Amino acid sequence: MAGKGSIEKRGANTWRLIASCGMKGDQQIKKTKTVTVKVSCEQKSCKNCTRIARCQARREAEKLLAEFVLEIEKGLFLESSKLTFSNFVDRWIKDYAESNLAPKTLSSYQDMLRKFILPAFGHLKLEQIKPAHLIEFYANLQEDGIRLDGKQGGLSEKTISYTHRIISSVLQDAVQWQVIASNPASRVKPPKVTKKQTACYDEEQTAALMEAIENEGLKYKVIILLAVFTGLRRGELMGLEWQDIDFNKGTLLVRQASQYLPDKGTFTKAPKNESSVRLMALPASIMTLLKQYKVNQAEERLKVGDLWRGTGVLSNFTELLDSVTSKDVSAAQLLKILRSQDGIIEKWEDNLQAIAVRINNEEIIQELCKFGEKAAPEIAALNTLSDMQLKEFISLWKSKKSSGGRLFVTWDGQPMHPDTISKWFPKFLKRHELPPLPFHGLRHTAATMLINQGLPAKSISGRMGHADIGTTYNIYGHYLKSADKEAADRLEKVYQNMKGNVN
């Protein structure tokens, strides 16, 4: 436990905080920390200073000392002299990343840290990391043999830049938490990323795409046309629910996105940024197609009968279960464990009866009974919940039930895997002998179509859900310049015609 502490003046704005932490034998244990205060004091020492009682710099240092002692008492102090980069990353993930980063971003960060960053300098003390370490590391990432997929060459400029962004983010938080004085990554420039023109179709290619999609199933036809005429991101498309479509007003509301992670399954998250939540008007022909698709989905549901999970208690099951349980074991991992257990199928009735005793909700019990042994792992998973968690699960399910279900689902009504469309699209293009294009290229195609129609950049930015108009210019600057040049050429023709008429 930390006891009293003291402060020592080190510079005009810097002070050393010293906390006494008991005795080890006959030796006193002390922990120190150097801090920077906002108020300057030019006195070299506080000794014999006549203004010591009124010194605002000293008062600020004393306040930081009190906080420092409290940190030690609560076990929150991170001692930089002993802390390795790997130790800090563990703490950073737990205290910051897990609660502040989107699940897929967190997974991507952890993947890069595990594969490349920590093996390189995870063992280094945090305060020992210098710009030279990072420069050497980025050079190594460009060398042949560094790739884990066995391909020749080093990592791409884009991947190395992404790695730098991760390291810089972690170290900047170390600065904010006053573990280190400065961020060494801020003094290093990663390899410059060569900016590539966004992949998209021109008007002729888009017309060929429209013609080809007429010969495909209705679900895929709707996905492709919505992507082209709205510019929605893949996750936003997969996250659409029928409650988001207003057939009377001809609008579509973007309010969530669907993503997938191996240890989490398919889950729903908020859109990329605040601007991504947006209401969009749709062309009349697209609204007509959506009405037809909704009727078609209802017909498919009748064919499936009792096996339809659309808005039932088993729809979005892993997502709902994750919302009410701890993060130690995900719902997807729990179901995998339960499926491997002997006798889990035979025990489904016993587990369901145990749930029925604990909750007063005949609707849920009847639906689970309807699925029977096909839902044995899910029933067993529900039976692992506490009474409070079970009530919470039911409350979340009720709120989901009113959504009308997802637009894009599997044969039994569960949310469609986000990767399904990305895998289907290249095969579709090849089948119809269309130029290769990633599915995300349809979003860029939508933006360039709007640019070619003369829509202002601000309106395009809003429709695409960009955080600010600068993002729009950064991605589509080339196309905006081309459209502006075409507009100037057209004005020149108008001017020449007017001039000819005058003459």
UniProtKB/TrEMBL annotation:
Tyr recombinase domain boundaries: 196-489
Residue stretches making up the Core-binding (CB) domain: 83-175
Keywords assigned: DNA integration, DNA recombination, DNA-binding
SUPFAM superfamilies: DNA breaking-rejoining enzymes
Biological process, per Gene Ontology: DNA integration; DNA recombination
GO molecular function, one term: DNA binding
PANTHER family: INTA PROTEIN, PHAGE INTEGRASE-RELATED
Protein family: Belongs to the 'phage' integrase family.
Biological function: Site-specific tyrosine recombinase, which acts by catalyzing the cutting and rejoining of the recombining DNA molecules.
Name listed for the protein in its UniProt record: Putative prophage phiRv2 integrase
